[in-house]
Amino acid sequence: MNGGKRSLTILHLYPREMNLYGDHGNILALQKRCKWRGIKTVVVEYEPSKKLPKEVDVIFGGGGQDSGQSVICGDLLKIGGKLKDLVEDGVPTLVVCGLYQLFGNFFKTLDNTVIKGIGVFNLKTLGGSERLIGNVVAESSQFGEVVGYENHSGRTFFEADLQPLGDVKKGAGNNGEDFEEGVRYKNAIGTYLHGPILPKNPKIADFLIETALTRKYGVTKLSKLDDDLERKTRLSAASRPR
Amino acid sequence: MERMVKKSSILIGKFVRRVARLKGGGSALPGLVVEKIDRNFLRDTLNSLPEGVVVVSGTNGKTTTTKIIVELLRSQGLKVFTNSSGSNFVRGVIAAILENINPSGRFDFDIAVLELDEAHAVRFVKVVKPKYALLLNVMRDQLDRFGEIDTTAKLLAQIAEATTGKVIINREDRRLSKIKSKAAVKYFGLSHRLLGEFPEDDEMFSEHHFPVSGKSPKAEVVFADFKRDTAVYEIGGERFEASLKLDGIYNFYNAAGALLMAHEILPKSSVGDLMKALSKVESAFGRGEIITSHGEKVQLLLVKNPSGFQLSLKSFGKRNYKTMIAINDQYADGRDMSWLWNVDFRILKNVDVVSGVRAYDMALRLKYDEVHFDKIEEDLAAATEKFMRLKGKKQIFCTYTAMLEIRKILNGRSLE
User: Fold this and answer.
1) Domain of A99, in residue numbers
2) Interval A203-229: pLDDT, tens
3) Boundary residue ending a domain (B280, B310, B338)
4) Residue A34 annotated among the catalytic residues of the structure
5) Where in B144-201 does DSSP place strands (E)?
6) Same-domain status, B241 and B366
7) Is the whole model's pTM more than 0.90, yes or no?
8) By CB count within 10 A, which of A66, A199, B279, B412 is most buried?
9) Higher pLDDT, B308 or A121
10) For the domain that residue B306 is a member of, what is the CATH number?
11) For a pLDDT cut of 70, what percent of chain B falls above it?
C-alpha cells in the first residue's frame, strides 16, 4: 500500500515554552519520515488557552526551562484529562524531559514545592541538587539500542509496576539509581533523552508513525527507508564519552 | 610588604610561564600558580589602572566586540590591556597580565578591556569591580555547562550589579533588558527594520515575533541599516555610515555596543573618528578570518551555538562558496549535539564536506533538512586536504576546537 491520501495530525504541545535542546528535531523526524513515504502530516502547535484539535494522531511534547514549565503547568492541568484519555485510547505519544515529568503524578522540587502533573504515567519526580548531564545509551527490548543526551535535575521514580523505555548502559537515566530510562505505557513513551531522540533512533519514530496509521487506517506496515546514516550516527554517538 | 609579595609573584609566574612554554604547555598554568600564591595579584594589578576595567560578556560576539573596543580606544591614544588570546578565564587574564608586566611590577596601561565568559565573569567581578560592563546577549550556548538560559541571564545580572560606572546592555535581548544596576545603564539596539533579521532563540521555530512587553528604553546607538559591507548607525539623532572590514551583520550589530562603550569611556571623542577606526577593524582569530594555504584562500567561520550558527548562515549561507562544516564535541564545543537541531540549514544549497568528531550528527541534521552533502570525513586533516583541493571560493563553518585544529592544519600545510 503506498501513500495515497493518508495524513497524520501531530499535536505539538507548547512549542514556544517547551522546546529546549533541539526537541523540534523530533517533529522534523516525524514529518520527514512520513513525507519520504508519501504520507501527509499536519502539525498543530498547541499553546496555553488555545483549543485542542478534534483529531489527534500523534502527541509530542518537549522539555523546557523552569520558567517555561511554570508558564504552562496551569494550562496543562486543564487539558490533562483529555490528554490522558487520548493516551489511554492508544494515541502514540512521545514526551521528553519536562513534559515527561509533568505527565507523571507530581514534581516535588528541592524546596518542597509540589507541581502537580496530569497522572498519565504513574510516577513521581523529585528535585535533585546535581544535574544529571551527558550521553546516554540504553537497551530497549522493543527498539534495541537507544542513544541520546540527558540534562535534568529531577529524579523520576515509578509509583507502580511500569515498564521503562530501556535499561541504562551508559548514563544516569530516570534517577541514577535503578539503571532504568524513561517509561513505556500503552503507545506512549516518556523519556529524558534529548539529542533529539527520534532522528537518531528511527525505530521509535517509525513505531509512532506506524501505530498512528494502524489506528487510523487499519493494520499498516511501513515501507523501509534507508537508515544507514542513522545507524552510523548512532554508533558515533554511542562511542562518545559520557 | 605588599609590593614584595607582588614582585615575587611576578617572578614566579614569569618563570612558570617560561617553563610551560618550553614544554609546549598552555597559558593557564602560570595563571593558576600565581592565583594560588598571591590571591591579590589580579585585584592589585587591575585596580592600579587609571581608567579601570571593562568587562565584555554574553553568549555571542565577545571576542570580536572586545577587539573592536580595544582598537577604538587605541585609535584615541589609550594604552589598552586585553586578553587577546581568547582565553576568557580568570587564569587566562592573570597569564596575560604576566606577559605584559615588568618584573618590578610596572603595568603600563590606561585601561583593561576583558572578554569573559558568563560564569568566569561572575568569579572575576567578585575579585575586581569593573568600571564598565558590556552585556551582548544571552543565547543557548553550551547548556550542558550552565544549565539553562535563564541561569545565564542571572549570571550577567550579577556582573551588572558589581559594575561601578556604566553598564551597556543590548536593548533587544528580552532577558537582558530587564537587568538593573546601581551603575548608570545605557542601551544599544536595532532599528525596527532590522529586528526581524535577528530572531531570538525562543523564536527560532515559532511563527511570529514575541510581542515586546512594555515600552522599550531609549538606545543611544542604534544599528539602523546595512548594505553589503556598509553599516549605518544612529547616534544622537544623526546617521553615521562606515564600510567595515568585519564580515557578518551580527558583527555590525555588536559594533553598536562597542561604539557606545568607547564613547562612554571617552565622551570627548568624535563619533566620526570612532567610525573611521571602526572601519579599519579586522576579523578576530577564526571569526571570519581568511587563511591562505598553498595560495588557496579559505574563510573560517566559528559557530558555537544555534543563534550564532543561524546568523552566520544568514550572512554567508547563500553565497556561491564551496562549503565545509566541522563539528566537534569537546568540552569547549559543548558535548550535547542537540543544538544542531535548533539551526535551520535549508538556506544552504550544498555542503561539500562534513567533518569533525560528530560529522555523522551534522550529516544526519542535513539529511532531515534535505540539504545535499557530498562527503562525510570525520578526520579533520583528511577532510581539510580534500576540501582545499576543490576549485572556487571556500568557507568552513566550524566549532571552537575544530577551528583550532583546522587553523593548525592549514598553517602547517602552507609551510610544506
Assistant:
1) 7-238
2) 999 999 999 999 999 999 999 999 999
3) B280
4) no
5) 166-170, 184-190
6) no
7) no
8) A199
9) A121
10) 3.90.190.20
11) 86
ipTM associated with this complex = 0.96
Residue B347 C-alpha, separation from nearest chain A C-alpha, in angstroms:
16
CB-defined contacts A:B, below 8 A? 92
CB-based contacts of B188, cutoff 8 Å, min separation 6? B168, B169, B170, B171, B219, B220, B221, B222, B223, B256, B257, B259, B260
Range of the domain at B300: 287-415
Give the total number of structural domains in chain A. 1
Query: Quick one: how far is CA A44 from the chain centroid?
Result: 16
Quick one: which of B368, B359, B351 has its CA closest to A202?
B368
A194 is catalytic: yes
Residues of A with CB under 8 A from a CB of B: 15-16, 19-25, 28-29, 32, 45, 65-67, 131, 133-135, 149, 151, 194-196, 199-200, 229-230, 232-233, 235-237, 240
CB atoms within 10 A of CB A166: 25
- Residue A2 falls inside a structural domain: no
Per-residue model confidence as pLDDT tens digits over B303-360: 988 888 988 998 899 999 999 999 999 988 889 999 999 899 999 999 999 999 999 9
Which of A20, A133, A237 is nearest residue B361 as measured by Cβ atoms? A237
Inter-chain CB proximity A28 and B368 less than 8 Å: yes
- Do B268 and B306 belong together in one domain? no
